[in-house]
Design brief:
- This is Membrane protein involved in the export of O-antigen and teichoic acid.
- It comes from Clostridium cadaveris.
- It is a single chain.
- 84% of the residues lie in helices and 0% in strands.
- With 477 residues, it is mainly alpha-helical.
- It is globular.
Protein backbone atom coordinates (compact mmCIF):
# COMPACT_ATOMS: atom_id res chain seq x y z
CA UNK A 1 0.00 0.00 0.00
CA UNK A 2 2.79 2.44 0.90
CA UNK A 3 4.51 2.09 -2.45
CA UNK A 4 1.19 2.58 -4.22
CA UNK A 5 0.52 5.67 -2.15
CA UNK A 6 3.93 7.10 -2.99
CA UNK A 7 3.42 6.39 -6.70
CA UNK A 8 0.02 8.11 -6.67
CA UNK A 9 1.37 11.15 -4.83
CA UNK A 10 4.09 11.52 -7.46
CA UNK A 11 1.49 11.09 -10.21
CA UNK A 12 -0.71 13.82 -8.69
CA UNK A 13 2.24 16.20 -8.39
CA UNK A 14 3.09 15.59 -12.07
CA UNK A 15 -0.53 16.26 -13.02
CA UNK A 16 -0.54 19.46 -10.97
CA UNK A 17 2.77 20.76 -12.36
CA UNK A 18 2.01 19.82 -15.98
CA UNK A 19 -1.34 21.58 -15.80
CA UNK A 20 0.27 24.80 -14.60
CA UNK A 21 2.94 24.59 -17.31
CA UNK A 22 0.38 24.01 -20.05
CA UNK A 23 -1.93 26.83 -18.97
CA UNK A 24 1.01 29.19 -18.54
CA UNK A 25 1.87 28.56 -22.21
CA UNK A 26 -1.73 28.77 -23.42
CA UNK A 27 -2.40 31.97 -21.52
CA UNK A 28 0.73 33.65 -22.87
CA UNK A 29 0.50 32.43 -26.48
CA UNK A 30 -3.22 32.69 -27.21
CA UNK A 31 -5.41 35.72 -27.55
CA UNK A 32 -7.85 36.23 -24.66
CA UNK A 33 -10.71 35.20 -26.96
CA UNK A 34 -9.00 31.93 -27.95
CA UNK A 35 -8.06 31.16 -24.35
CA UNK A 36 -11.66 31.85 -23.39
CA UNK A 37 -12.85 29.24 -25.93
CA UNK A 38 -10.45 26.68 -24.45
CA UNK A 39 -11.70 27.57 -20.97
CA UNK A 40 -15.35 27.15 -22.02
CA UNK A 41 -14.69 23.74 -23.57
CA UNK A 42 -12.67 22.54 -20.58
CA UNK A 43 -15.41 23.70 -18.18
CA UNK A 44 -18.09 21.69 -20.02
CA UNK A 45 -15.85 18.63 -20.37
CA UNK A 46 -14.86 18.79 -16.70
CA UNK A 47 -18.53 18.56 -15.75
CA UNK A 48 -19.05 15.57 -18.05
CA UNK A 49 -15.86 13.93 -16.81
CA UNK A 50 -17.35 13.99 -13.30
CA UNK A 51 -19.82 11.34 -14.48
CA UNK A 52 -17.27 9.37 -16.48
CA UNK A 53 -14.18 9.49 -14.28
CA UNK A 54 -14.77 8.80 -10.61
CA UNK A 55 -17.95 6.72 -10.91
CA UNK A 56 -16.66 3.88 -13.08
CA UNK A 57 -13.15 4.01 -11.64
CA UNK A 58 -14.15 3.75 -7.99
CA UNK A 59 -16.94 1.25 -8.64
CA UNK A 60 -14.63 -1.06 -10.61
CA UNK A 61 -11.84 -0.73 -8.05
CA UNK A 62 -14.15 -1.60 -5.17
CA UNK A 63 -15.81 -4.64 -6.75
CA UNK A 64 -12.66 -6.10 -8.33
CA UNK A 65 -10.66 -5.86 -5.10
CA UNK A 66 -13.45 -7.39 -2.98
CA UNK A 67 -13.41 -10.51 -5.24
CA UNK A 68 -17.12 -11.16 -4.74
CA UNK A 69 -17.91 -11.46 -8.44
CA UNK A 70 -16.39 -12.94 -11.57
CA UNK A 71 -13.82 -10.32 -12.60
CA UNK A 72 -14.24 -10.71 -16.37
CA UNK A 73 -18.02 -10.36 -16.10
CA UNK A 74 -17.61 -7.36 -13.79
CA UNK A 75 -15.20 -5.60 -16.16
CA UNK A 76 -17.42 -6.22 -19.20
CA UNK A 77 -20.56 -4.92 -17.48
CA UNK A 78 -18.76 -1.87 -16.11
CA UNK A 79 -17.44 -1.13 -19.60
CA UNK A 80 -20.98 -1.58 -20.95
CA UNK A 81 -22.49 0.93 -18.53
CA UNK A 82 -19.58 3.30 -19.11
CA UNK A 83 -20.31 3.00 -22.85
CA UNK A 84 -23.89 4.14 -22.24
CA UNK A 85 -22.65 7.24 -20.42
CA UNK A 86 -20.01 7.84 -23.10
CA UNK A 87 -22.62 7.60 -25.86
CA UNK A 88 -24.91 10.05 -24.10
CA UNK A 89 -22.28 12.73 -23.56
CA UNK A 90 -20.80 12.21 -27.03
CA UNK A 91 -24.23 12.95 -28.53
CA UNK A 92 -24.66 15.97 -26.26
CA UNK A 93 -21.38 17.47 -27.45
CA UNK A 94 -21.50 16.46 -31.12
CA UNK A 95 -25.16 17.01 -31.96
CA UNK A 96 -25.71 19.73 -29.38
CA UNK A 97 -22.67 21.75 -30.47
CA UNK A 98 -24.78 24.46 -32.18
CA UNK A 99 -26.73 24.91 -28.94
CA UNK A 100 -23.49 25.47 -27.00
CA UNK A 101 -22.43 28.03 -29.59
CA UNK A 102 -25.75 29.86 -29.32
CA UNK A 103 -25.95 29.81 -25.52
CA UNK A 104 -22.33 30.95 -25.13
CA UNK A 105 -22.81 33.58 -27.85
CA UNK A 106 -20.01 32.30 -30.09
CA UNK A 107 -20.87 30.33 -33.23
CA UNK A 108 -17.24 29.26 -33.67
CA UNK A 109 -17.73 26.96 -30.67
CA UNK A 110 -19.89 24.63 -32.77
CA UNK A 111 -16.89 23.14 -34.59
CA UNK A 112 -14.73 22.94 -31.48
CA UNK A 113 -17.40 21.18 -29.43
CA UNK A 114 -17.83 18.59 -32.18
CA UNK A 115 -14.10 17.89 -32.06
CA UNK A 116 -14.23 17.84 -28.25
CA UNK A 117 -16.93 15.15 -28.43
CA UNK A 118 -14.24 12.63 -29.37
CA UNK A 119 -12.41 13.35 -26.11
CA UNK A 120 -15.34 11.84 -24.20
CA UNK A 121 -14.93 8.17 -25.28
CA UNK A 122 -11.15 8.44 -25.03
CA UNK A 123 -11.39 9.70 -21.44
CA UNK A 124 -14.07 7.17 -20.50
CA UNK A 125 -11.89 4.22 -21.56
CA UNK A 126 -8.79 5.72 -19.94
CA UNK A 127 -10.38 6.01 -16.49
CA UNK A 128 -11.78 2.48 -16.76
CA UNK A 129 -8.22 1.22 -17.16
CA UNK A 130 -7.28 3.15 -14.02
CA UNK A 131 -10.15 1.55 -12.10
CA UNK A 132 -9.24 -1.97 -13.22
CA UNK A 133 -5.61 -1.50 -12.19
CA UNK A 134 -6.67 -0.01 -8.84
CA UNK A 135 -8.92 -3.01 -8.21
CA UNK A 136 -6.10 -5.41 -9.07
CA UNK A 137 -3.83 -3.52 -6.62
CA UNK A 138 -1.54 -2.46 -9.48
CA UNK A 139 -1.12 1.02 -8.09
CA UNK A 140 2.21 1.46 -9.81
CA UNK A 141 0.56 0.95 -13.20
CA UNK A 142 -2.27 3.36 -12.34
CA UNK A 143 0.23 5.96 -11.23
CA UNK A 144 2.31 5.40 -14.37
CA UNK A 145 -0.72 6.04 -16.58
CA UNK A 146 -1.70 9.00 -14.40
CA UNK A 147 1.78 10.45 -14.93
CA UNK A 148 1.99 9.73 -18.66
CA UNK A 149 -1.31 11.44 -19.46
CA UNK A 150 -0.56 14.98 -18.17
CA UNK A 151 2.93 14.87 -19.68
CA UNK A 152 1.47 13.71 -23.01
CA UNK A 153 -1.01 16.60 -22.88
CA UNK A 154 1.97 18.93 -23.19
CA UNK A 155 2.13 17.73 -26.81
CA UNK A 156 -0.40 20.49 -27.42
CA UNK A 157 2.47 22.98 -27.13
CA UNK A 158 4.53 21.80 -30.14
CA UNK A 159 1.31 21.16 -32.08
CA UNK A 160 0.31 24.79 -31.60
CA UNK A 161 3.78 26.07 -32.43
CA UNK A 162 4.45 23.98 -35.54
CA UNK A 163 1.15 22.58 -36.89
CA UNK A 164 -1.86 24.56 -35.70
CA UNK A 165 -0.31 28.00 -35.56
CA UNK A 166 -3.40 29.53 -37.18
CA UNK A 167 -5.86 27.52 -35.09
CA UNK A 168 -4.41 26.99 -31.60
CA UNK A 169 -7.74 25.90 -30.10
CA UNK A 170 -7.85 22.92 -32.45
CA UNK A 171 -4.21 22.23 -31.56
CA UNK A 172 -5.16 21.98 -27.89
CA UNK A 173 -7.99 19.55 -28.63
CA UNK A 174 -5.86 17.35 -30.90
CA UNK A 175 -3.07 17.38 -28.30
CA UNK A 176 -5.47 16.28 -25.56
CA UNK A 177 -6.94 13.56 -27.79
CA UNK A 178 -3.52 12.19 -28.74
CA UNK A 179 -2.54 12.21 -25.05
CA UNK A 180 -5.60 10.14 -24.10
CA UNK A 181 -5.19 7.71 -27.00
CA UNK A 182 -1.48 7.14 -26.37
CA UNK A 183 -1.97 6.69 -22.62
CA UNK A 184 -4.92 4.34 -23.17
CA UNK A 185 -2.83 2.34 -25.64
CA UNK A 186 -0.06 1.93 -23.08
CA UNK A 187 -2.61 0.99 -20.41
CA UNK A 188 -4.28 -1.61 -22.64
CA UNK A 189 -0.96 -3.24 -23.50
CA UNK A 190 0.06 -3.39 -19.83
CA UNK A 191 -3.31 -4.85 -18.83
CA UNK A 192 -3.27 -7.53 -21.52
CA UNK A 193 0.31 -8.58 -20.83
CA UNK A 194 -0.15 -8.72 -17.05
CA UNK A 195 -3.72 -9.98 -16.80
CA UNK A 196 -3.42 -13.77 -16.45
CA UNK A 197 -2.36 -14.18 -12.79
CA UNK A 198 -5.21 -12.11 -11.34
CA UNK A 199 -7.98 -12.17 -13.93
CA UNK A 200 -7.73 -15.53 -15.68
CA UNK A 201 -7.15 -17.45 -12.43
CA UNK A 202 -10.11 -15.86 -10.65
CA UNK A 203 -12.36 -18.79 -9.65
CA UNK A 204 -15.43 -16.83 -8.50
CA UNK A 205 -18.38 -17.73 -10.75
CA UNK A 206 -21.08 -15.42 -9.36
CA UNK A 207 -21.87 -12.61 -11.80
CA UNK A 208 -22.73 -9.07 -10.80
CA UNK A 209 -26.19 -7.79 -11.79
CA UNK A 210 -26.05 -4.95 -14.33
CA UNK A 211 -28.31 -2.81 -12.14
CA UNK A 212 -25.76 -3.07 -9.30
CA UNK A 213 -23.01 -1.83 -11.62
CA UNK A 214 -25.21 1.09 -12.69
CA UNK A 215 -26.21 1.93 -9.11
CA UNK A 216 -22.66 1.92 -7.74
CA UNK A 217 -21.25 3.88 -10.69
CA UNK A 218 -23.90 6.60 -10.45
CA UNK A 219 -23.59 6.76 -6.66
CA UNK A 220 -19.84 7.37 -6.79
CA UNK A 221 -20.36 9.86 -9.63
CA UNK A 222 -22.92 11.84 -7.62
CA UNK A 223 -20.66 11.95 -4.57
CA UNK A 224 -17.70 13.30 -6.51
CA UNK A 225 -19.88 15.79 -8.38
CA UNK A 226 -20.83 17.30 -5.02
CA UNK A 227 -17.17 17.31 -3.98
CA UNK A 228 -16.26 19.17 -7.16
CA UNK A 229 -19.15 21.57 -6.64
CA UNK A 230 -18.03 22.48 -3.12
CA UNK A 231 -14.45 22.98 -4.32
CA UNK A 232 -15.33 25.14 -7.34
CA UNK A 233 -18.65 26.91 -6.92
CA UNK A 234 -17.18 29.52 -4.56
CA UNK A 235 -15.08 30.96 -7.39
CA UNK A 236 -18.19 31.49 -9.51
CA UNK A 237 -20.00 33.06 -6.57
CA UNK A 238 -17.16 35.54 -6.07
CA UNK A 239 -17.34 36.47 -9.74
CA UNK A 240 -21.10 36.99 -9.56
CA UNK A 241 -21.52 38.73 -6.21
CA UNK A 242 -18.36 40.54 -5.05
CA UNK A 243 -17.08 43.90 -6.27
CA UNK A 244 -14.64 45.15 -7.39
CA UNK A 245 -13.97 42.59 -10.10
CA UNK A 246 -10.31 42.33 -9.06
CA UNK A 247 -11.37 40.27 -6.03
CA UNK A 248 -12.34 37.43 -8.36
CA UNK A 249 -8.71 37.34 -9.51
CA UNK A 250 -7.41 37.53 -5.94
CA UNK A 251 -9.68 34.66 -4.89
CA UNK A 252 -8.72 32.58 -7.94
CA UNK A 253 -5.07 32.96 -6.95
CA UNK A 254 -5.90 31.71 -3.46
CA UNK A 255 -7.87 28.76 -4.83
CA UNK A 256 -4.99 27.72 -7.09
CA UNK A 257 -2.72 27.17 -4.08
CA UNK A 258 -5.44 25.96 -1.73
CA UNK A 259 -6.38 23.03 -3.94
CA UNK A 260 -2.89 21.51 -3.62
CA UNK A 261 -3.98 19.96 -0.31
CA UNK A 262 -6.94 18.18 -1.89
CA UNK A 263 -4.87 17.06 -4.86
CA UNK A 264 -2.39 15.34 -2.53
CA UNK A 265 -5.11 13.89 -0.29
CA UNK A 266 -6.91 12.37 -3.27
CA UNK A 267 -3.99 9.94 -3.64
CA UNK A 268 -4.90 8.47 -0.24
CA UNK A 269 -8.56 8.08 -1.23
CA UNK A 270 -7.58 6.33 -4.47
CA UNK A 271 -5.52 3.76 -2.58
CA UNK A 272 -7.71 3.16 0.46
CA UNK A 273 -10.88 1.94 -1.29
CA UNK A 274 -9.43 -1.12 -3.11
CA UNK A 275 -7.03 -1.94 -0.25
CA UNK A 276 -9.77 -2.01 2.39
CA UNK A 277 -12.25 -3.71 0.04
CA UNK A 278 -9.75 -6.53 -0.51
CA UNK A 279 -9.27 -7.05 3.24
CA UNK A 280 -13.02 -7.09 3.80
CA UNK A 281 -13.49 -9.56 0.93
CA UNK A 282 -10.94 -11.80 2.66
CA UNK A 283 -12.81 -11.37 6.01
CA UNK A 284 -9.68 -9.76 7.46
CA UNK A 285 -11.41 -7.01 9.46
CA UNK A 286 -8.43 -6.30 11.72
CA UNK A 287 -6.22 -5.95 8.65
CA UNK A 288 -8.71 -3.54 7.07
CA UNK A 289 -8.81 -1.41 10.22
CA UNK A 290 -5.01 -1.41 10.39
CA UNK A 291 -4.76 -0.12 6.81
CA UNK A 292 -7.22 2.69 7.55
CA UNK A 293 -5.28 3.71 10.66
CA UNK A 294 -1.98 3.67 8.78
CA UNK A 295 -3.42 5.66 5.87
CA UNK A 296 -4.75 8.36 8.19
CA UNK A 297 -1.45 8.52 10.08
CA UNK A 298 0.49 9.08 6.85
CA UNK A 299 -1.97 11.77 5.71
CA UNK A 300 -1.64 13.69 8.97
CA UNK A 301 2.12 13.17 9.14
CA UNK A 302 3.01 14.20 5.58
CA UNK A 303 0.14 16.14 3.94
CA UNK A 304 -1.18 18.22 6.85
CA UNK A 305 2.17 20.05 7.31
CA UNK A 306 2.11 21.10 3.64
CA UNK A 307 -1.42 22.40 4.18
CA UNK A 308 -0.36 24.32 7.28
CA UNK A 309 2.77 25.73 5.63
CA UNK A 310 0.67 27.21 2.82
CA UNK A 311 -1.84 28.51 5.35
CA UNK A 312 0.82 30.10 7.57
CA UNK A 313 2.75 31.75 4.71
CA UNK A 314 -0.23 32.77 2.58
CA UNK A 315 0.62 36.48 2.41
CA UNK A 316 4.24 36.24 1.18
CA UNK A 317 3.30 33.30 -1.07
CA UNK A 318 0.57 35.20 -2.94
CA UNK A 319 2.63 38.39 -3.10
CA UNK A 320 5.67 36.58 -4.48
CA UNK A 321 3.87 34.38 -6.99
CA UNK A 322 1.46 37.01 -8.30
CA UNK A 323 1.65 40.64 -7.21
CA UNK A 324 1.68 42.39 -3.80
CA UNK A 325 -2.00 43.31 -4.09
CA UNK A 326 -2.90 39.59 -4.09
CA UNK A 327 -2.05 39.57 -0.38
CA UNK A 328 -5.62 40.79 0.08
CA UNK A 329 -6.61 37.15 -0.37
CA UNK A 330 -4.10 35.85 2.21
CA UNK A 331 -6.71 35.20 4.94
CA UNK A 332 -8.85 33.42 2.35
CA UNK A 333 -5.93 31.21 1.27
CA UNK A 334 -5.13 30.35 4.89
CA UNK A 335 -8.64 28.95 5.31
CA UNK A 336 -9.01 27.47 1.82
CA UNK A 337 -5.88 25.39 2.31
CA UNK A 338 -7.43 23.87 5.44
CA UNK A 339 -10.80 23.52 3.70
CA UNK A 340 -9.23 21.46 0.93
CA UNK A 341 -7.50 19.21 3.48
CA UNK A 342 -10.82 18.64 5.25
CA UNK A 343 -12.43 17.83 1.90
CA UNK A 344 -9.67 15.29 1.34
CA UNK A 345 -10.60 13.72 4.69
CA UNK A 346 -14.27 13.62 3.67
CA UNK A 347 -13.40 11.70 0.51
CA UNK A 348 -11.00 9.41 2.39
CA UNK A 349 -13.54 8.59 5.11
CA UNK A 350 -16.38 8.03 2.64
CA UNK A 351 -14.28 5.72 0.47
CA UNK A 352 -13.64 3.69 3.64
CA UNK A 353 -17.36 3.62 4.43
CA UNK A 354 -18.14 2.58 0.85
CA UNK A 355 -15.83 -0.41 1.27
CA UNK A 356 -17.64 -1.51 4.45
CA UNK A 357 -21.27 -0.80 3.62
CA UNK A 358 -23.58 0.56 0.96
CA UNK A 359 -23.24 4.16 -0.18
CA UNK A 360 -26.40 5.46 1.53
CA UNK A 361 -24.45 7.58 4.03
CA UNK A 362 -22.36 9.17 1.29
CA UNK A 363 -25.49 9.78 -0.79
CA UNK A 364 -27.23 11.47 2.15
CA UNK A 365 -24.15 13.57 2.93
CA UNK A 366 -23.99 14.66 -0.72
CA UNK A 367 -27.64 15.72 -0.81
CA UNK A 368 -27.42 17.63 2.48
CA UNK A 369 -24.23 19.34 1.33
CA UNK A 370 -25.89 20.39 -1.93
CA UNK A 371 -28.80 21.93 -0.04
CA UNK A 372 -26.68 23.78 2.53
CA UNK A 373 -23.40 24.73 0.87
CA UNK A 374 -24.47 26.86 -2.10
CA UNK A 375 -26.87 29.15 -0.15
CA UNK A 376 -24.34 29.43 2.69
CA UNK A 377 -21.60 30.43 0.25
CA UNK A 378 -23.80 33.08 -1.38
CA UNK A 379 -24.81 34.60 1.96
CA UNK A 380 -21.20 34.62 3.20
CA UNK A 381 -19.91 36.24 0.01
CA UNK A 382 -22.54 38.98 0.07
CA UNK A 383 -22.12 39.78 3.75
CA UNK A 384 -18.42 39.27 4.40
CA UNK A 385 -16.58 39.09 1.08
CA UNK A 386 -13.93 36.55 0.12
CA UNK A 387 -12.65 36.02 3.66
CA UNK A 388 -16.10 35.12 4.99
CA UNK A 389 -16.66 32.87 1.98
CA UNK A 390 -13.41 30.98 2.61
CA UNK A 391 -14.28 30.69 6.31
CA UNK A 392 -17.68 29.24 5.42
CA UNK A 393 -16.02 26.75 3.10
CA UNK A 394 -13.66 25.69 5.88
CA UNK A 395 -16.49 25.28 8.40
CA UNK A 396 -18.60 23.26 5.94
CA UNK A 397 -15.80 20.87 5.01
CA UNK A 398 -14.69 20.49 8.63
CA UNK A 399 -18.27 19.62 9.59
CA UNK A 400 -18.50 17.09 6.77
CA UNK A 401 -15.20 15.51 7.84
CA UNK A 402 -16.32 15.38 11.49
CA UNK A 403 -19.66 13.76 10.62
CA UNK A 404 -17.93 11.23 8.35
CA UNK A 405 -15.43 10.41 11.12
CA UNK A 406 -18.31 9.91 13.58
CA UNK A 407 -19.89 7.46 11.15
CA UNK A 408 -16.62 5.52 10.90
CA UNK A 409 -16.25 5.53 14.69
CA UNK A 410 -19.72 4.04 15.21
CA UNK A 411 -19.61 1.55 12.34
CA UNK A 412 -15.96 0.49 12.15
CA UNK A 413 -14.03 1.60 15.20
CA UNK A 414 -11.29 4.00 16.26
CA UNK A 415 -9.06 4.90 13.32
CA UNK A 416 -6.96 7.54 15.07
CA UNK A 417 -3.81 6.03 16.56
CA UNK A 418 -1.83 7.65 19.41
CA UNK A 419 0.93 8.28 16.84
CA UNK A 420 -1.60 10.22 14.73
CA UNK A 421 -2.29 12.47 17.72
CA UNK A 422 1.46 12.98 18.25
CA UNK A 423 1.87 13.84 14.56
CA UNK A 424 -0.97 16.36 14.85
CA UNK A 425 0.68 17.99 17.87
CA UNK A 426 3.96 18.23 15.97
CA UNK A 427 2.04 19.85 13.11
CA UNK A 428 0.82 22.59 15.45
CA UNK A 429 4.40 23.41 16.41
CA UNK A 430 5.42 23.33 12.74
CA UNK A 431 2.60 25.72 11.86
CA UNK A 432 3.61 28.20 14.58
CA UNK A 433 7.20 28.14 13.34
CA UNK A 434 6.00 28.96 9.82
CA UNK A 435 3.81 31.79 11.10
CA UNK A 436 6.87 33.36 12.73
CA UNK A 437 9.01 32.82 9.63
CA UNK A 438 6.34 34.41 7.40
CA UNK A 439 6.62 37.64 9.40
CA UNK A 440 10.39 37.80 8.94
CA UNK A 441 11.07 36.85 5.32
CA UNK A 442 10.59 38.97 2.16
CA UNK A 443 7.98 38.06 -0.45
CA UNK A 444 10.39 36.19 -2.70
CA UNK A 445 9.74 32.81 -4.35
CA UNK A 446 13.32 31.58 -3.99
CA UNK A 447 13.39 32.49 -0.31
CA UNK A 448 10.01 30.82 0.21
CA UNK A 449 11.13 27.67 -1.57
CA UNK A 450 14.19 27.44 0.66
CA UNK A 451 12.06 28.00 3.75
CA UNK A 452 9.63 25.25 2.71
CA UNK A 453 12.38 22.74 1.97
CA UNK A 454 14.40 23.42 5.13
CA UNK A 455 11.42 23.61 7.49
CA UNK A 456 9.78 20.48 6.04
CA UNK A 457 13.07 18.57 6.26
CA UNK A 458 13.37 19.61 9.90
CA UNK A 459 9.78 18.53 10.52
CA UNK A 460 10.37 15.08 8.96
CA UNK A 461 13.53 14.72 11.05
CA UNK A 462 11.41 15.32 14.16
CA UNK A 463 8.91 12.68 12.98
CA UNK A 464 11.74 10.17 12.79
CA UNK A 465 13.38 11.33 16.02
CA UNK A 466 10.10 10.99 17.91
CA UNK A 467 9.57 7.56 16.28
CA UNK A 468 6.19 8.61 14.91
CA UNK A 469 7.24 7.36 11.47
CA UNK A 470 9.85 4.73 10.70
CA UNK A 471 11.88 4.70 7.48
CA UNK A 472 11.39 0.92 6.92
CA UNK A 473 7.67 1.64 6.45
CA UNK A 474 8.37 2.99 3.00
CA UNK A 475 10.03 -0.18 1.78
CA UNK A 476 6.92 -2.23 2.47
CA UNK A 477 3.89 -2.74 0.27
Amino acid sequence: MRKGLLYNLISNVIFFASGYALHFFLGSSMSPAEYGIVGSIITVLDFEYMFLSNGARQSAAREISSKRYDIKDLILKTFAFQAILIGFFFCVNFFGAPVFGHVLNDDSLTFYFRVAAFLVPANGIYVMLLGINDGLQRFGTSALLGGIYPIAKLSAIPLIIFVFRDNPVLGVEIGFLLALLSTTGVGAVLLLTQRRPQIDQNHVTETIPFRVVAKHTLSFSFFFIIVSLVLSVDTLIVKATIAPASYAGFYTGAVNFGKLSYSLMSAFATIILPVVSQRIGEKDMSGALSKIQENLLLAVAFILPITLAISATSAPLLSAFYKPEYAAAAPALSMLSLSNFFMGLIVLFNMVLSAYENTHFSDALSIISLIIVVPAFIIAAKTGGITALAATSMVCTFTGAAVSYWRILTKIGQVILPKTVYAFALNIVYCLVNVIIARLIPANLIVLALVYVISYAGYVAMLLLCKIIHIPHFSNR
